Amino acid sequence: MRTAxxxxxxxxxxxxxxxxxxxxxxxxTDGTHGTDGKExxxxxxxxxxxxxxxxxxxxxxxxxxxxxxxxxxxxxxIVLVLDVYTVLFVLGLHAASVVRxxxxxPDTLRIxxxxxxxxxxxxxxxxxxxxxLRITPDGERPDGELDLPVGSQTTITLELAEPVAHFTFLGRxxxxxxxxxxxxxxxxxxxxxxxxITHAITQARTAPSPLPGLPG
Length: 216
Hints:
4-stranded mixed β-sheet; alpha+beta
């Protein structure tokens, strides 16, 4: 029952992503850099050709099956519904990546991938960030590590002083200390994270000290 609820929620979020994509809106940011101190960084460019190519193949299959099954109307209707849903599903996967970019705020970095991952990393937990191109398969990594490749590659590596909680698709918790993920403009995101960390440290150092307590 729990798995069915997770799958249903996943499908609904994909459809919501399609709606946002058509409306040219994004989730978690209004799409303008600097609003409320937040910046959005995309990561879907590296997979767009593959996803659109897959969608095109699905459309061709739909047309082919329509011709082959034209003499079997009942079967044709069932297959047509399934084929159309498959096309929407593929487009929804891509749309989810487009409308849910990484978001960097003054205090938190949200690392996302479609509707599957939304990892919130406090800026003060970041000890190191670097641009690092790695070709890596998509799968579970050793304890404490999380790889989020796009097109089988990651471009940024993030090291954390304290673990942050990541929940898998079916809800299993993993504590993460090292994240490798992809961004279309990796140098800009690394620079922005570094600037945010530096700014947070400067603010902490220049904050006024609390007043000493009055003598009793």
